[in-house]
Amino acid sequence: MAESIETDKLEPEEEVLLENFRRNENHTLITLLGLYKGHYLKLFFSIVFFAVKHFPVWVLPIVTSNIINAATNGDRNAVNVIIINVIVILVMVLQNIPSNYIHTILYAKAIRSIERDLRSSLVRKLQQLSIAYHNEMQSGRLQSKIMRDVEQIENLSSQIFISILSIILNITVALGVVIFKSLTVFLFFIATIPVAVLIIVTFRGKIKQYNTDYRREMEETSVRVMEMVELIPVTRAHGLEKQETEKMDHQLKNVAKKGLKLDIIQSYFSSVSWVAFQAFQIICLGFTGYLAVKKYITVGEVVMYQTYFGTIVGQVSSVITLLPTIAKGLESVNSIGDILLCHDIENNRRKKKVKNVTGEIIFRNVDFQYKDGELPVLKNLNFTITPGETIAFVGASGAGKSTILNLAVGFFYATEGQVLIDGQNIKSLNLQSYRSHIAVVPQNAILFSDTIRENIIYGTDNISDEELHEIIKAANLEELIESLPDGLDTKLTEHGRNFSGGQRQRICIARAFVRNPKILILDEATSALDSISEKQIQESIEKLVKNRTTLVVAHRLSTIRNADRIAVIGNGGLQEFGTYDELMEKKGEFYRLKKLQM
Length: 598
Prior knowledge:
- By secondary structure, the protein is an alpha/beta fold.
- It is built from 21 helices and twelve strands.
- It comes from Clostridium oryzae.
- One of its GO terms (molecular function) is ABC-type transporter activity.
């Protein structure tokens, strides 16, 4: 086995994202802001143009006050004052169009870039996470995190750079103008802040908890929906539509209950806030009216103060309205962090990169126990497979046959002992490079929605039409391809359901041929097929296994007669090991299993 040391490096964007999540693991808001590292300059200018486009909103109360005062005072220059103020506000209103465009371009590019990077990082991390992790984590939850949670973060980011930014600037400008005009009125405005803080603190915990409960229930629903869709043929075949519908209705009721609790607390929160701030606004109107009567301020200033106070009240109310969106977004940051910070990964960094494989596999004193298992599946397992040899594994369900294949592929590591590939401990190898020399044909054909051609050449981009034709012939697909109007360019529906089980399996075998593997893994590749399809698959497999180290798990013992040796697995170890004829003559466990199938 030729080898070299590989030092895997993450993509720069991914490294920045992961480091941000690690460093600020317990500070969700800081984590969110850290996502935009590298975009800060762009966002700064976006804020500048956002402020410029909002000038009309801030200047209009002053212009209104000037016009009212000019009209009520009746000065000689009143008309000129009115004209100048009208021109000023019109110019400011017109500049909103270009300023808004530049602001939107700058912030939207940043947000969409982060949205893409987050999804890309999640996809990359899912490819790195161990098979054990994927076995435990339901695919519906992962889909929800990639789609729904990233969307929630994108929504929160949009709110930050539109609504929240607007709120902060509007309140700052309003208070700035008021403190410049009247310290007395400013102090009255400031008195509203403790009320806002008290309301937010009172409701924040409940809203966060209800948002968490609702997200988890939505993830569970996503899982249930995917399972329901997958099971529709089974459900229909057994007439269980009503039971399945009732089961989904129960789950949907749970979602509705969680959603209703969230809606009620949010509505109550908004109602209390609105009443409190409307009361303050009415008091403000009376207070400034009183000041005008006492000649401390002008009539125009009453309108100005009322407008600014209305702005502050409206902005604080907006903050309160946005809290549910903020809570959802921050909860989604935590949800995504669950994946990005997960340490259950297949780490290939600084491991030996495999250049060539001869195909020798040795199990030396191997024990294996699943993480949550109470008893070991394999105990002190020892055997050697020489290059080019075909070994069949048989035994009762749960004996550990598929576990042996998973250990040989590197999906799991031995709890004790060693699995050696060409004399090298599999734990020391870069598994990605090692697996480039392996092909796996599983029990259930795994195909994707694309053409037959793309399914066959999956992961290979340097195969000629002549080579592809030879592979199709070897996989007994020639007749099928010729019978299709679009031939190799025929599209497969989801999971290839527009083809029979045998046809799907032969496409998988053709995919294995394309890889020209040194080690071939066949996990009950014919167990779910009829006898005619099984014969065709068996013929294809016999061509495929030539000159390759092959590990076969077989349910039908008649299909492994030509194996070089047969390993009977049971009681956590190797019960018998020999050729078909040797084991039949021995009349031991293999003989008993064979007789049961006759």
